[in-house]
Amino acid sequence: METIGHKTVKVNGISMHVAEKGEGPVVLLLHGFPELWYTWRHQILALSSLGYRAVAPDLRGYGDSEAPPSPASYTSLSIVGDLVALLDALVGPGEQAFVVGHDWGAIIAWYLSLYRPDRVRALINLSVPFTPRNPARKPIDTFRAVYGDNYYICRFQENGEMEAEFAKIGTRRVLLEFLTYRTPGPLFLTKGNLFGHPTDTPVELPSWLTEEDVDYYASKYEKTGFTRGFNYYRALDLNWELTAPWTGAQIKVPAKFIVGDLDLTYNTFGTKDYLKKGGMNKFVPLLQEVVVMEGVAHFIHEERPDEINAQIHDFFQKF
Questions:
Q1: Which domain covers residue 92, as residue numbers?
Q2: What are residue 255's DSSP bridge partners?
Q3: For 112-145, how does the pLDDT look when each residue is reduced to its tens digit (9 = 90+)?
């Protein structure tokens, strides 16, 4: 880990912290919630040894990157703007990079590929498939209709509410609950019973997650809090409004999608059929493969790093 370099880059009006290692074609690694650049530690080391330059930013609002206060600053347009400016600074104006995204990072990677396919050489996304914009209904209304008010995305909407509830539990405990979540279904955060059990219930760390890993995440979130990450969710409806011009648009970059069969995203309403019956291919026509890994949950690149590293290398070698 000490061989990974760190620097701060000015992009799109903010300061962005970047971890990187290696020389060669750039692989841009985009994390999700509640993660940081650190979620890609295994990929950074492996890809750099295979002849790539692995670049993992803390996305805007996370870790050591700058955090504009308003949720309106966290739409896909702003965040993709950060990444285009980052590529300009690190690779050169107009140059391409390979892209890998997980969770919210996958959502952002889909948007980067939609808005600026000229900057994406090839794409691998983990956990979250591309979901086309539904012009008939806003995202939060859809989530409430399907899952109810206690669905985690709905609970994140009210400014200050989840922050206060998480504060009662403690930052480290909240992160433990998220990082070890393996229930193959929607996550509900019921007030007074957030994760479905008493918060003094012992949490057994899986083999892929160490106390030191949790300590690193906790050290950053203790400083920043969770509001920055919530802002991505709080901007969902605004993002829906701003992306109306892309309704029905296709993502035209070579792509591969990987998900674990225990991932809460894979087990949400309609996702399995959407992936298995070719629904995503209509919107991602250059999608070359969908891989469903058995016995793997949400944090797939941490739980099975060697397999994910091999999948990344095998796919990107084609380009």
A1: 5-316
A2: 123, 287
A3: 999 999 999 999 999 999 999 999 999 999 999 9
pLDDT tens track for 77-102: 999 999 999 999 999 999 999 999 99
Amino acid type, 285? P
**pLDDT higher than 90, residue 2:** no
- Count up the domains in the chain and report the number: 1
Is 298 annotated as catalytic? yes
Average per-residue pLDDT for the chain: 96
Catalytic residue among 31, 102, 298, 301: 298
Q: Is 103 a catalytic residue?
A: yes
Residue 46 belongs to a domain with what CATH number?
3.40.50.1820
Active site residue: 103, 111, 152, 217, which one?
Answer: 103
Position 59 pLDDT exceeds 90 = yes
Q: Are 233 and 76 in contact, with CB atoms under 8 Å apart?
A: no
Of the listed 102, 233, 266, 301, which one is catalytic? 233
